Amino acid sequence: MTANLHLWLIPLLPLIGAAINGLLGKKFSRPAIVAVALSFCGAAFAMALWIAAQFSSLLTPHLETLASWLRAGNLQIDFAFQLDQLSLIMLLVVTGVGFLIHIYSVGYMWEEGGFYRFFSYLNLFMFFMLTLVLASNYLVMFIGWEGVGLASYLLIGFWFTKDSAASAGKKAFIVNRIGDFGFLVGLFLMIKHFGSLNFDQVFFSVGRLPSTPETTALLTSIGLLLMVGACGKSAQIPLYVWLPDAMEGPTPVSALIHAATMVTAGVYMVARSHVIFEHAPLALMVVAIIGTLTALFAATIGICQTDIKKVLAYSTISQLGYMFMACGVGAFSMGIFHLMTHAFFKGLLFLAAGSVIHSIGGEQDMRKMGGLRTKIPWTFWTMTAATFAISGFWPFAGFFSKDAILWKAYSSPFGSWVFWFIGVFTAFLTSFYMFRLWFLTFFGEYRGEQSHAETHAGVPAPHGDGHDNEHHGIHESPKVMLIPLVILAVLSVTGGWIGSERFDRFLSPVFHPGATTAILGEAQTSVEPPQNQDKEHGASEGLLTTISILAAFLGFGLAWLFYHQRPQLPEEIAESLGGFYRAVANKYYVDQLYAILFVTPLIDGSRDILWHSVDQDVIDATVNSSAEGAERVSDSLRHMQSGNLRSYAGWVALGAAAVIAYMIWTGVR
Amino acid sequence: MLHLILFLAFGAVCVAGAVNLLVQRHPINSALSLVVVMGALAGEYLLLGAEFLGAIQVIVYAGAIMVLFVFVIMLLNAGEEERTKGSRVALLFGVPGMLAGSLLIAWVLLHSDMGSVEVGALLGSPKAIARLLFHDFLLPFEVTSVLVLIAIMGAVVLAARSEVAQPKQEKEN
Amino acid sequence: MVPLSYYLVLSGILFASGVTGFLIKRNLITIFMSIELMLNGVNLSFVAFAAHWQKLSGQVFVFFVMVVAAAEAAVGLAIIISVFRTRQTLNVDQVNLLKL
Q1: Per-residue model confidence as pLDDT tens digits over A200-212
Q2: Is residue B93 part of a domain?
Q3: A251: closest CA among A104, A465, A361?
Q4: ipTM of the assembly?
Q5: Can you tell me the distance from the alpha carbon of A316 to that of A337, in angstroms, rounded to the nearest whole number?
Q6: Could you tell me the domains of chain C?
Q7: Domain interval for residue B162
Q8: Quick one: closest CA in B to A664, which residue?
Q9: In the structure, what pLDDT confidence band is assigned to residue A468 with cuts at 50, 70 and 90?
Q10: Are residues B87 and A647, on separate chains, in Cβ contact within 8 Å?
Q11: Contacts across the B-C interface (CB distance below 8 Å)
């Protein structure tokens, strides 16, 4: 008999915190708000740790049903949660990194207005994200899915009085919605063909399907539709456009939602649905192609961005592409491994970037930074750790996960050397733009306007309305912001040391449930994973690893050359590349393209057709004209009440004659 | 044969009286025409054998009700009618409508075979009427007597002079 | 040997004349007399049918109609007198306080 872990408490605790802060927080003092937010989030983290401690004694997957929800014919969906190795890892990542970012936000947002609102939204986000990872059926996962989109919208548009922030929030939500539509249609297909949305039942049914062209087509459709949803949520081509705009939100938001947790929900969902994808090789190929292309595409844009947060945003898109590449070649556990290490170093990068921005009074343009390493040493060293991690240097965390992905991309039966090659090239680009950021921010001469000794009346503070510049000059961030940086830095260094084989073994009950006990019984016809079927390779793993390390060094070297030794080189090259450079710097004009293709026609159509023609001219006109018609009719009928006796008598006589005539007529027949 | 001639004679007088009522401008002339109509109708009743009713028609209708009308006309000194703007509906639709209706009815009636009536076919002697009245129709008889009582009271109240009413009200106040 | 329909047509003529008078005339009293004319027409119809169907209750009904007509005439004339006292006119077109 499995113990009752009260899994439902884990999402519920942050929800309570969100409710308290949201409803009553306006009257609380700042310490009180912080206490509420941190205690509930911390409690969730503590529960996660407690569960992890006793995890080995649990029978997995561990299901807990809270209450029954929907019952329609044969379809039954409950509020049910499950715990297995995959959700445990996600749980620890979400609660752990989330808790650290909560702590960081205390310092970052201390001088902002709407303090209680921010923490309420953060806790709300935690609730939805935890619902998502703990769900045991697709519909509860969808609640979390939609909810994190909502929280993202609220947090991106936190400074809603700023037009750009409000628009960015809208853009994020709408693009997400497009993905959600695909997700939903996929769910409908599942309901129709499998009669259930529970993970175990769906995967069981998928496993039992005979492999005919029709079933393969069905599974491919479901897989592709789920991928559409994942593209929206995890910012892959073609639905990635919201993520760079989402940088309008406060930096802790970018760290938590758009680096560590929400955008990884797509990867989690694809990994969770691995059974479906494994039975639909075409969908798997599409996942891999989208992931690889996105990785390359975003990396090329990232090398030309000047805003520090935008560089990190495109970097996130690119790294997410790696995760999808991993899933697409069947190495789901490697995708999750990279998800975990990415949460560490990308979260750290964003938080450190926030610390940098905070220290120079709100400036985000890297061209106005420089030489900061002596002035903000803690930030510098932690960010250095993260930069080396993301570039894939040994022995930092990113090396292990990225290298595992590249190896699998080459060697898996679903993979190919094309994926590997693009992945290595993208790793080179990643290293290049990250070290470019590193050099521009911390080395060289300070090019900005903040002075570091005298009182200054304020550079404009684009990252906050209420950020007053009482902190004169460039200063290190307060300890409450630095401690999470240090913790994440330690994780960025050590997080990969578990090694990809051990990680894979840990997750094998989820992805390769061949021999492990499960409640699915003996119908284990899931595709045997590609681990033992690595194709005959012409190159050994060691050679490929060496190449990827070389790529990282190459990127570092090039960045050192361009931005440390000869700073005038980049401009010369940019000018010589002319239009091509401009295209990349303008993000390939994708936003403009979407505006022409979709946004403008939609807005114009809505305004001209739906608003003017339909709403005004048809609906309003109908209502108005019926009112006018009633008015006209009553106006003419009014004359009957003339007060004139004789006219009344006349009407009576007329009516009587008509009735008599009718009676005679029918009587005569 | 004689029956038909008498019927037509009395009928012609009826119609003439009715038309005269419409044509005359002074109400007293109309009232007198109505008396003529009622007299002729009494004749028709006799032809149909309703002797009691014929007598009642003359005594009550022509003798009491029409006298009442004449009294009121004289009391109010109602003069000749003035020409005022009438009702378009009444003139345009009412009159033609009614005429058309009645023409239609007349046409239908005349073309249908309903049988004929003999002179004095049903003798409505006072005895027979009284037998019905006090046996089968006793309740309506008593009710109508109450109705007459109410009518008397109503007429007295409505027609009483306002000076008579006001001192009473002052006394009550 | 007069056909019943003749009586009915005569009755109809009287009734129609009553309605016409009601619609045409302007003097309240004349209008009231037209109503009496209508009643008379109906009475004739009743008596004719009573004779046709050999049922005396038709004549009794006429009796009641006459009683009601008497009561109605009394009350109606009383009302006309009141109207005359308040409006100082017997012209029905001028009794139009209900006009909008």
Answers
A1: 888 888 888 887 8
A2: no
A3: A104
A4: 0.90
A5: 15
A6: 4-94 (1.10.287.3510)
A7: 137-173
A8: B105
A9: very low
A10: yes
A11: 249
